Amino acid sequence: MENSTILFLLLASSALPAVIIFLLPEKSTALRNSINLLGVFSKIFFVAYLIDGVINNELFYYKFAFTPEVSLVLKVDHLSLLFATLSSILWLFTTIYAIGYFHKTKNQSRFFGFFSLCITATVGISIAGNLFTFFIFYELLTLTTFVLMLHTQTAQAKKATIIYLTYTIFGGLLFLVGLVILHSISGDMEFVSGGYLGDLKNTLPFYLETIFILLFIGVGVKAAIFPLHRWLPSAMAAPAPVSALLHAVAVVKAGAFGIIRIVYDIYGVEFTNSLGLLWIVLGVAVVTILYGSIMALRQTDIKKRLAYSTISQVSYILLGVALFGPLGTIGGMIHLVHQGVMKITLFFCAGAFAKNYKIKKIKQLNGLGKVMPLGAVAFTIGAFGMIGIPPTAGFLSKWYLGMGAYENGFLSILGVLALSSLLNAAYFLPMVYRIWFLSPPLSLKPQKKLNYRNTLLILPPLLSALLTLYLGIFALNDYSALQWVNTLVQMEYSR
Amino acid sequence: MSIFIIAGVAIFIFGLVGVILQKGFIHKLVSLNIFTSGIFLIFISTTVHHEKADPLATALVLTGLVVTLGATAFALMLIRAYYKKRNQSENCNDD
Amino acid sequence: MMTNLLIPLLLITPLLFGIFGFVFPKKATALGIVFGATFLFLSLKLLYSVSENSIEAYYFGAFLPPLGITFEALPFGSLILAISSLILFIVFIYGAFFLNPKQSSLFYPLSSFLTLGFVIVYLSRDIFNIYVGLEIVGLSAIALTVLQKDLESIHSALVYFITTLVASGFYLLAVAILYAKYSVLDINALSLVIQNDFTTLVAFGFMIVAFLIKTAVFPFSFWLPKAHANALSPVSAILSALVIKTTFYLLYLFASSMFTFGINNYTILGYLGVGAVFYGGIKALLATELKMLIAYSTISQVGYLLLVFALDHPYAYYAMVFMLLSHAFAKAGMFLASGAIIHRAKSQNITKLQGYASITPLAVFAIGFSSISLIGLPPSLGFISKWYYLQSAFESSSWIFFITILGGGILSALYLFKILILFLQKPLQKIEEFEKKHDKNSSKIVQLCAFALSFLSVFLGFFSNLLIGFLG
Asked: In this predicted structure, what is the pLDDT of residue A94?
């Protein structure tokens, strides 16, 4: 087991703080926050260490035999680090944000404990070396997020949790069935760049297709594809840090990440194409993109609009997967990172607006630019990123997706991309307009000074907005998502 | 010997039917004892060699009898406690 | 002929401690804890020596079969015995804090006698000796049930009593028939001479019914819910986790060693299992009291165990063993946790238990971990069991059982998440009121015991490979 310690350290950096936080009394806020942040920074350190190692072609691997046929495998590759880096950096931002958001509220031990466990699950998903290990962390994610959804303890939260659990457990069950059948057919195989199912002789396409559909639905629930998306808008009943990191990033990205792993590292993208399964992904992606955008237009609640936007945007990743070819893949994968950063900015701002001025509805955004200029700027950058305006990161993703569509001759997909960008503009620009160009109601008084809580609420979205710009402007830099994904995609298509 | 076997089976069935259909714990307990007596009779009568009872079977049936005795005693004690408690709560309820 | 004294020690220890416990009631708790530790040590030693040699046998009085009684420790039996001793030990520690002295003075001695019954059932190779063991288990269990002295408990104990004695009668009748026909009582000897004819089938039929009744398999499960729900929580844990397993073990043992003809004939047991899974699951969903919910959950999980008879696949055996082990830990932990919560809430009514995650967080965590194993979420032992069941059903194309396994999982998710969500909501009363009453009975140690058991039901999943190697 080469270099397996670092893998455990990576998981422990959020699991250990979780256990300690659970044991701490509710009132030890300073200690709790310190331990939490210690975990956050050590996780970022470990991820950096792994990035350095992977660049130098080091192997990080661990295998444990659960049973003679099924093993737990932890492995780090380029794709893992894409997701792991995103998760750990955004965990940093969200922790700072959450400390501010929950300042002087109840049940913080429970929140931060389960929050850290969620991150453990997310990172575990990223370093899972086979589908079985992926499943373990995937279900752990379900278990830890549902507790967070109930945090506000309102009737609305309870309803949202029940819907969420219904969908995810249903998805988990189908995934399990698919997994069992997969193991019966192919045995205990690990993720391989380029896939391994194509090499199996004498396998009925019927089984391969059934497995794919089952797994697709299983991860699709978390990725909020249509028609399994219903849980996401109602999940907005959870507090803003939860919506920001988990529902806009961790959970949905875990679903999208799952689809990427299945298509690229189990089936292999060429094999998936030859089975005709990419058409399913394409169809679902297109429908979800359009459906999400249209529904977003109809919302009057800020978080709900952002939720439908997420539904739509995550399917861009699926679109990238379905567009058979390196350009499409690049577009999809960088969007995994870009959408996360941009969406979290928007949710951070929405939460800050709500905390400071009790703003929940879009029509209440009038003139916010005058009283919360920093928040408004961050929000605008995020919104522009969603629409795809250069030089934000969002533009880059759409560019590659468009090129991928053109490369395949899917001119209609180009149309879909253009249409959805228009729709994005249609529901984001009015919000931006209201913030900057309409006059505020008299009740909107500016914040006198930046107190503790407000700083913590404003700093993270500013940082993530900056990151959005960085990922767009400095995309050709060695340290951008684009370059990393380039390497990844070369490995996948060179098989 | 077959007459004893048939009798044993009959007693067994009567006891079993009694346990199931009788109402009231004492009735069930009595039926239960009849039921086990039937079993013991079957046990002995099926293991007879040359007009003599099988020694091992006899020992086993003796064990069974003692077990049933203990269990019946315990059951009676419980039934008594049950009815006593029930009458108490009924008396308390007549206000 | 082995002169190893381990097996006789396993018999004498519970007997002696039980007697001493009755003679010195004031010292019962201390004696109980010492007994628990001693017995745990002995059964682990047995487990270890079985893993080395694979069979440990003892011939009482140096008499060989067919006249003498043999005790044989095989992997499956010694594993369950070891697990039972571990669970008992933790329940004993729980009881030291949870029970009042009067209850303790009876609880520990009775549990010791119960343990004696376990040793006989899991190790004996003589079918009449097993009858005695079953009676010891049954009577001790009933006595433990009535430690809770209210009307409901005595009633449900009496129902259990009558039912279990009828079942014992059926078993004894079967022994009589077998002895009359084959003149041997030893299991190993019987497996050599047994024939597939009418009288033998009748005997085995009675045995199966006896075991089904005692294992509370649907439709013979009517006695269980009230009996388990109305008992004291540590007793409920012992009943659901351990006592139920004894007769299922015997069912499996007899079917696989003696009555091995026609594995297809046992499929009907599988269908009874299907009924149990759904009946138990639906009733659990409809339950309004916490312990009733947990008791119906037991009926449902027992259904899974029966599937081993219908799935003709090597993995089904491992699935069954893992289900048995994981359920024992999960259910015991759950009942212990519920004891702590109910004691604080002074009510079993589920709606009154809202918000207890803030009041007894460790106990709710325990219920959470137990749920992971019961629903079958990875990486728990319950999950591995379910995985093997699904694989067995898929590879033998048994679709009804495949659907049942999934359906049972959905049902258990429904009723377990229902209570977990309830626990996580806002408490009905202010927490400060609870903080004032510093209760021994729901103290941290009590909850910790519950959590330890629940944690094990999940954590043991990592030892699946080891267990498979041990079971062979």
From this structure: 92
SS3 assignment, position C260: coil
Residue B86: pLDDT band with limits 50, 70, 90? confident
CB distance A132 to A64 below 8 Å: no
Contact A150 C464 (CB under 8 A): no
Low-confidence ranges of chain A (pLDDT < 50): 1
Residues of A in contact with C360 (CB under 8 A): none
Instruction: End-to-end CA distance of chain C: give it in Å, rounded.
Output: 24
> CB-CB: which of C378, C391, C409 is closest to A136?
C378
Q: Tell me the CA distances in angstroms from C42 to B36, C38, C55, C332, one per residue in order.
A: 37, 6, 16, 21
* CA dist., res. A88 & res. A109, Å (int): 20
pLDDT of amino acid B7 = 93
pLDDT at A2: 58
Residue from A98, A128, A136 nearest A21 by CA: A98
Tell me whether residues C391 and A153 touch, CB distance under 8 A: no
The subunits that touch chain B, with at least 3 C-beta pairs less than 8 Å apart, are: C
Rounded Cα gap, residues A326 and A407, in angstroms? 10
Rounded CA gap, A11 and A120, in Å? 6
- The residue of chain A nearest to residue C369, with distances taken between CA atoms, is A143
pLDDT recorded at residue B92: 67
Give the closest residue to C410 by CA, choosing from A231, A167, A227: A167
Report the C-alpha gap between C5 and C189 in whole angstroms: 24
Q: Would you say A190 and A73 are in contact if contact means Cβ atoms under 8 Å apart?
A: yes
Contact check, Cβ <8 Å, A177/C426:
no
| Residues B46, C175: C-beta atoms closer than 8 Å | no
* Residues of A with Cβ-Cβ distance to C379 under 8 angstroms: 66, 72, 136
Helical residues (DSSP H) of A323-372, grouped into ranges: 326-357, 368-371
Residues 326-355 of chain C whose Cβ lies under 8 A from any Cβ of chain B: none
For residue A62, what are the β-bridge partners?
A: A74
Question: What is the reported pLDDT for A1?
Answer: 47
Measuring CA to CA, how many Å separate C461 from each of A174, A279, C137, C325? 22, 39, 29, 10
Tokens linked to A114: 């389960």
Identify which of C361, C80, C81, C106 has the alpha carbon closest to the alpha carbon of residue C232: C106
Residue spans of the domains in chain C: they are: 1-256, 262-472
For the stretch C78-127, pLDDT in tens is 999 999 999 999 999 999 988 888 899 999 999 999 999 999 999 999 99
The count of residues in chain C is: 472
- Chain B residues whose CB is inside 8 A of the C180 CB are 43, 46-47, 57
Q: Where are the domains of chain B?
A: 2-93
pLDDT at C263: 54
Residue A201's Cβ-count burial label (10 Å; 0-12, 13-18, 19+) is: exposed
Quote the pTM value. 0.92
Chain C residues with CB-CB distance to B32 below 8 A: 162, 165-166, 169
User: Who among B47, B74, B89 is closest to C179 (CB)?
Assistant: B47
B28 touching chain C per CB within 8 A: yes
Write the DSSP string, C309-368.
Answer: GT--SHHHHHHHHHHHHHHHHHHHHHHHHHHHHHHHHT--BGGGGTTHHHHSHHHHHHHH
Specify the DSSP class assigned to residue A197: G
pLDDT higher than 70, residue C438: no
Q: What integer pLDDT is reported at residue B93 of this predicted model?
A: 60
pLDDT-based confidence at residue C208 (cuts at 50, 70, 90): very high
- CATH among 3.90.226.10, 1.10.287.3510, 1.10.3720.10, 3.40.50.300 for B2-93: 1.10.287.3510
Give the pair of three-digit tokens for residue C284: 């659990």
Residue B63 in contact with partner chain C when CB distance is under 8 A: yes
